[in-house]
Task: inverse folding
């Protein structure tokens, strides 16, 4: 599944989302260095299943 496939599904289902892009990170430690001002909790992996 590509990013465009996922965005199409979200849009087709009228699911509100906010996309924030950042450089790739491979560990939780690296992700903690990204200073994003967003609500919520971080997670190491995010899986979508169709």
Result:
């Amino acid at each position: 599944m590509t990013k465009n496939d996922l965005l199409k599904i979200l849009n087709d289902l009228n699911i509100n989302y906010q996309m924030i892009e950042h450089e790739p990170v491979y560990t939780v430690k690296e992700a903690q260095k990204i200073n994003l001002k967003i609500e919520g909790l971080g997670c190491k992996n995010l899986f979508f299943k169709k």
Notes: The chain has two helices and no strands.
